[in-house]
Amino acid sequence: MDTKYIFFTGGVVSSVGKGVTAAAIGKLLKERGFAVAVQKLDPYINVDPGTMSPYQHGEVYVLDDGAETDLDLGHYERFIDISLNRVCNVTTGQVYAEVISKERRGDYLGGTIQVIPHITNEIKRRIGLVAKTTGAEIVLVEIGGTVGDIESLPFLEALRQMRSDLGRTNTLNIHVTWLPYIGATAELKTKPTQHSVRELRSIGISPDVIIARSDYPVEDDLREKIALFCDVERQAVIPLVTAPVLYEVPLILERFDLANYLLERLGLQTRREPDWTDWERLIREVQRPKPKAHIALVGKYVELHDAYFSVREALEHAALSLGLEVKIDWVHSSDLEKDRHWDVVRAADGILVPGGFGSRGIEGKIKAISYARQNKVPYLGLCLGMQLMVIEFARYLIGNDEPNSTEFDRSTSYPVIDLMPDQRSIADMGGTMRLGLYPCQLQPGTRAAAAYGKPLVEERHRHRFELNNAYREMLSRGGMVFSGLSPDGRLVEIAEIADHPFMVGTQFHPEFLSRPNRPHPLFVAFLEAVRNRLGLGESAPQATTSQITPGIQETLAVGSGS
Ligand code: GLN
Fold it and tell me: How far apart, in whole angstroms, are the C-alpha atoms of residue 3 and residue 157?
C-alpha cells in the first residue's frame, strides 16, 4: 500500500495538546493493526532542543539512537508503545543546515537557493524518511506552533505540496483548535476556530477534521456550527474536552468513531477490532482511590513541571502497577540551601533527584540526598541524581565537603565525578554528549539485578560526566555497590548503597523507557521500597554484596588527585 500521511496543524493558541492528540490517534490506528510512526516538525532555528534551557522548552526527550528531541516524542512513544528515531523530529535549523551545506558543496550547480523549492523539498525529503526508516504504513506529522506563525510557513507549504503530489486518499489534514469560554455569557466561542481555518485556507490547506479542544462540554449545535463555517463534515468535528487523565484521550476519540472515519478517508480497511481491555483497566486504576505516596522531587526547574515530564510519567506508571497514587512534591533545590522547604522533604515517603546541568542548586540536592541516606528514605537518582549520590557518599566517607564533580568545581581535590575521557576535546555543545541506548551489565545479587530480573539491559543516556574509576575502590569499601556496569566494565551505570532500604542511582535515564502498561523496573522497585516504608507491602529483597566497612577513612585519599 502507499504510505498514508496525516498532518496535524494547530490553531488559535499553542499548548492545546496537539502532541497528545496526535499520539492518541496513532494509538487508535495501531490498535487497528497498522504500523504507525509520528514525526514532529519544529519551526525553531535550533538544530535540536539539546542546547535549550528547560525553561524554554520543557524536557529534552532522548531516543534510542541518541537524538535529543521535543517532549512530544515522549507522548508518541508512550501512547503508541513504539520506538522512534532521529528523523522523527525535524527543526528549521536542521533543514537550513542541510540545504546550506549542500550549497557550499556546490550540489546545486550554481542555482539560486530559495525557500520554495529548496527548503520545502528538504522538508518533504525528511517527511519521506520516516516511512523508509521505521517501516510505518501511516505517518502522522505534527507541525509545532500555531497557524499564522511566520516561521511555520515553509512547513505548511511542504504539506500543501505533498497533498497534490500524493493525492487526497493518501493525505489528511487534522486541525486542532481551542474553543475559548466566555464566563460572562457562559458560552464557548467558535470564532477563533473559524479564523484559524480561514488562515489555513489562505495558504492552500483545507482541514478534513477539526479537533476542537475545550475545558467545557461542547454541545452538538456548536459542532454543527463549526462544520458549517469551516466546511468540514459534521462527524469530522470532534470535541475534545480536557481529560483529567491524559491516557483517556484515545478512548474519548474512539467514542466519536474518529479512527474509522480517518481510515475510510484514506481508503483503508480496519485490519482488526481494537481491544481496549488493558487500556480501560489502566484508566480505571488511575481513577480508583489508592493510598498516597509522597515523592519529593528535588530539582532546579521545578516551577515548570514539563521539564520533568518523563519522570512524572514513569512514577505514575510504576505507582499504578503497585496500586499506589503518587503525589509529587516539587522542591526547589536552591530553597533547601536556604533552609526552606525542608518540611516537604521530611514529610516525603521517597526522594528523587532527576537529571540536570550546571552548578545552581547542586548543594541543596546533595543535602536532600544526605537526608535520604541518613534517614533511610528510599532514594532514586537519575543521571545527575546518581552523580550527586556518589559525591554525597564520598563526602561522608572522607569527612569533608571537598569531593565534587569537575562540572561544578574544576579544581576539586576529589574529582569523584569527572568528564569522560572522550569528552575532553569536544568544543561544540550541541549533540555531543554520550547519547542514546547503551548496554548495562547487572551485577548479580544487587537491588538493580533483582529489579530487572535479567543480566543485561539497554538504557538511554544523556551525559558528559561519569564516576571517576580512581575512586571506585574507595567507594565500594565504604559500602557503595556498583550494580550496573558497561559490558567492558569501564563505566559505572548504576550505583547503590548496600546498607539502605533503597538508594539507587543510574547514570542513564530509565524514565524514557517507561510505558503505561510496562512500568520501568527501577521505578517499580523504588516505589516498592516506598510502599514498604508506608507499611503497605512486602519487604523488598535485600542486596547481598558489599557491606559498609567501618574505619575506612584513612584509605580514602587513594583516589585523590587523579
Ligand atoms: N550534568 C551531568 C553530565 O553531563 C548530568 C547530565 C544529566 O543529568 N542528564 O554528566
Answer: 20
